[in-house]
Design goal:
alpha+beta; 4 strands; globular
């Protein structure tokens, strides 16, 4: 098989989600994070709308405090849970960088929002695959406030925009094993 195919195949198959608290706290050089964002910028995009936007935190604790406080401000009455607040406050303690990924809706109404979401997802996958190639652990989260309107508003994005998630990047000493539950043959229909 072709060497380039073999290399990309290995990277794709080796990519794993590593929870932020399983990271080891070592710092990633900013240049490597910038290189990952450059990979993101080469995602496919219909109409060249390039709908991906990224907010990068070099100090994860700053983001985690903002995230926890936003949760507190938007929890009313009995909905506030101190344990959840503390989880959000410390979620990134061992991460090196945190990236908030957003789909910024393009100005071409003929392009469905679904295609903009798909393009932003491809940009995120480029980051995750690049991270794997650099032996950087990653975790794509939609937990906490990530999918709530208040989170999107906090970053000054509009109603048509969508937060795609929070990416935690760092290094890890161990990676989980990969597995698939459904055989590939059950996911494919060949028509000849």
């Amino acid at each position: 098989m072709d060497v380039a195919f073999s290399t990309i195949s290995t990277i794709i198959k080796d990519r794993r989600s590593v929870k932020p608290l399983a990271m080891n706290g070592n710092k990633i050089p900013n240049g490597q994070v910038a290189a990952l964002l450059e990979l993101a910028d080469w995602a496919p995009t219909h109409g060249l709308t390039e709908p991906w936007r990224f907010i990068v935190y070099e100090k994860p604790q700053e983001f985690c405090l903002q995230h926890a406080e936003l949760y507190k401000q938007n929890s009313f009455g009995d909905s506030f849970d101190a344990a959840n607040y503390n989880k959000l406050l410390h979620q990134g303690d061992k991460a090196s960088h945190i990236i908030v990924a957003i789909m910024k809706r393009g100005n071409l109404p003929k392009i469905p929002a679904l295609e903009e979401i798909a393009a932003a997802s491809c940009a995120i996958q480029n980051i995750l695959l690049g991270a794997t190639a650099l032996n950087i652990a990653s975790f794509w989260s939609t937990g906490g406030m990530a999918l709530r309107p208040a989170f999107r508003s906090f970053f000054n994005y509009g109603e048509d925009d969508q937060v795609m998630g929070i990416l935690y990047l760092g290094y890890a000493d161990e990676y989980p094993a990969g597995k698939r539950s459904i055989p590939l043959e059950e996911k494919i229909t060949w028509i000849q």
